[in-house]
Amino acid sequence: MNTILTLNNLNKTYEGGFEALKDINLEIRRGEIFALLGPNGAGKTTLINSVCGLVMPTSGQILFDGKDIVADYRYARERIGLVPQELCTDSFESPWHTLHFSRGLFGKQRDGAYVEQVLRNLSLWDKRNNMIRTLSGGMKRRVMIGKALAHEPKLLFLDEPTAGVDVELRKGMWEQVRALQRTGVTIILTTHYIDEAEQMADRIGIINNGELILVDRKEDLIAKLGRKEMTLDLQEPLAEVPASLKGFELSLSEDRRRLSYSFDSAAEDNGIARLLSGLHKAGYECRDIHTKQSSLEEIFISLVKKK
Q1: In a domain, 300, yes or no
Q2: I need a labelling partner for 112 at 20 to 30 A (CA). Which of 65, 199, 231, 293 fits?
Q3: Which helix (H) or strand (E) holds 10?
Q4: 53 and 136 share a domain?
Q5: Residue finishing a domain among 223, 241, 273
Q6: Rounded to whole angstroms, what are the CA distances from 78 to 29, 108, 163?
Q7: Are residues 71 and 183 in the same domain?
Q8: CATH number for the domain including 240?
Q9: Per residue in 150-170, pLDDT tens?
Q10: How many Cβ atoms from other residues are within 10 Å of residue 124's Cβ?
Q11: What is the bridge-based pairing of β-strands 33-37 and 203-208?
């Protein structure tokens, strides 16, 4: 899978000295869904706007399809789409007219069949002639996606695409995004919903205070940084943790019948055998044992706090 977008030492400092981006280096693979996570003010939107030509970086280089987006700005603009957080379209126009108009802005010939297909894919065909102001919030969000797709981009930015959308509509939009990926569109997604990134993304990047902390495959990220927690349901209440087990990361429930052990799942010696042996020698037996893997949300919070 080759690279469609490359950021080399990208920096953005605003007047007043605020550093929104600090030496960002990133490669986006063609055809992937990449989730960019970070708290408010982390630099996500500045990064997107820099690639889309809405913000001029202070230094660094952005290559789209191997071409510099400043030197070959027309090439980049024609092939990059953006769905911003804000709903910005004419409320008194229809989805049908809005998509045709957006397509024309990019110099594309009128193509009713293509616009129809986009509207059908977004479940908007039945509303094609309705004024946008009469549509629901979820439908308006889908019109924004359709507007960004009107000029047939190869790279699509979705900046908080499901903000303010209910759970059922969010799931529907996830499927629509996957359908776009299947057509060959590369997607960069920013979201505050960690479960959204966990469901959708092939790779995940975490940005905080303008710095790209980490980029990795979702599964590898969880495997490398995630911890597991083993819970032991005891046959009898435990008065206190035996002295022989003080070296383990243990916590005892209020009813003293449940012992929790946090461990590194990737470690050669996770200590489980020694823990169970020590518990048995202390005269306690387990009624049940179960484990839980750290979620992506827990990993994200941990990384941001450390940074």
Answers
A1: no
A2: 65
A3: strand 3-13
A4: yes
A5: 223
A6: 19, 9, 26
A7: yes
A8: 3.30.70.1560
A9: 999 999 999 887 766 667 767
A10: 21
A11: parallel
Instruction: Please tell me whether residues 43 and 85 are part of one structural domain.
Output: yes
Length of the chain counted residue by residue: 307
Is the domain of 190 the same as that of 286? no
Give 115: exposed, middle or buried? Use CB within 10 Å, 0-12, 13-18, 19+.
buried
Instruction: Look at residues 191, 189, 193, 213 and name the one whose alpha carbon lies nearest to residue 202.
Output: 189
CA–CA distance, 39 with 90 (Å, rounded to integer): 30
Q: Which two tokens stand for residue 248?
A: 């383990």
Strand order in the sheet with 67-68: 19-29, 3-13, 59-64, 67-68
Inform me whether the pLDDT recorded for 133 exceeds 70.
Answer: yes
Q: CB under 8 Å to 261, separation ≥6 — which residues? A: 229, 230, 231, 232, 248, 249, 250, 271, 272, 275
Highest mean pLDDT among 111-125, 208-222, 240-254: 111-125
What's the confidence (pLDDT) of residue 126?
A: 95
Q: CB of 51 within 8 A of CB of 73?
A: no
Give the DSSP H or E segment for 213. strand 211-217
- Taking residues 192-218, what's their average pLDDT? 84
**Residue 156 in domain:** yes
Q: What one-character DSSP code corresponds to residue 110?
A: P
Q: Examine the domain organization and report whether 122 and 184 are in the same domain.
A: yes
Q: What does the pLDDT read at residue 116?
A: 95
- The neighbour count for residue 168, using CB atoms within 10 Å, is 9
Q: How many domains does the chain have?
A: 2
Same-domain pairing of 239 and 144: no
| Domain range for 219 | 3-223
Domain boundary among 223, 247, 262: 223
pTM score: 0.73
Q: Which two tokens stand for residue 4?
A: 């469609």
- The pLDDT assigned to 110 comes to 93
Domain assignment present for 305: no
